[in-house]
Amino acid sequence: MTATVSFTIDSPLGPRTATVAYERKGAGEPLLLLHGIGHHLQAWHPVTDILAAEHDVIAVDLPGFGVSEPLPEGVPYDLGTVAPALGALCAALGVERPHVAGNSLGGLLALEMGRIGLAGSVTALSPAGFWTEGERRYAFATLLAMRAGAKALPRPALERLARAAAGRAALTGTIYARPARRSPDAVVAETLALRDATGFEKTLAAGGSVRFTDDVPGLPVTIAWGTRDRLLLRRQGVRAKHTVPGARLVRLPGCGHVPMSDDPALVARVVLDTARSAATRRAA
Fold it and tell me: pLDDT at residue 283 above 80?
C-alpha cells in the first residue's frame, strides 16, 4: 500500500515542504530503495519481498516522479538538494542512516547519501555520474527519445503494445535485457510514469554537469553493472571503482540497465550481501 509523508527540506530558497510517496514492508534494519529517472518505486517490486525478509524496506517515488509531488517551485533537482532531502525523508519516517540501494539516478543519490553520512551501506546499480561527456549525451538523448515516445502513444495503443512480448521489447528494451519478463500492466504503468514525470526535465538539466568524483569512505559500498546495459555502458563501472577504490565492483551477467526485473535473485543477493557486510564491520 502506497502512503505519503510530508517533511521540511533545506533549499537555496530556505526551508520548504516536500511530499513523497512510499511503500514500506518487512522488519529489520531499514533499507531505502531509490529508482532511476523517469521510473517509479514499482521498479523494485521484483525484489521487494526478498529484501523484506531481512529488512524494513522503504521504496520511494523520488520527488517529481511516480505519484510523489514535484519539489516546491524554484527548488532545484540537483544532487546537493535531493540527497539531503532524502535524509530528511528518512528522519520523518523515524529512520537514521539506512542501508541505501539505488539504480541509475537512484544509484548516484545513494552514493551521495553515503558520502555525506546519511547511509549505513550503499548498493549502486548502474549509477549515473561516471560517464564521459559523449556517454552522457548519448544517455540523455536516449532518455529524451523514450519520453517523447511515451508521450506520443495514446493509452489504448500503449495497452495493445504491452500485451505482446515484441511490444514490451519495443517499449522497454532499452532498459531491460529481458523485457518480456515484465507484465503488460507493469509496462503500461512505467511508460505512463515516464510520460507524466513532472521532475524529468529539471532532473535531466541538473544532471548535465554531474560527475561523481569523491570517495565514499567508512562504509560498505557495492557498485554493480549489468553486462547488457545499453544506457550507461558497463565500462563506466571501472571508472566508478577507480573513484571509490574501496567499493566492491560486481558484474550482473545478462542484466540490463534496470536489473531488478532481469535477475531478481541476483540483485537481491547483491543488496543483502552489502547490508550484511555493514553488520559484520560493526561487530568486528
Answer: no
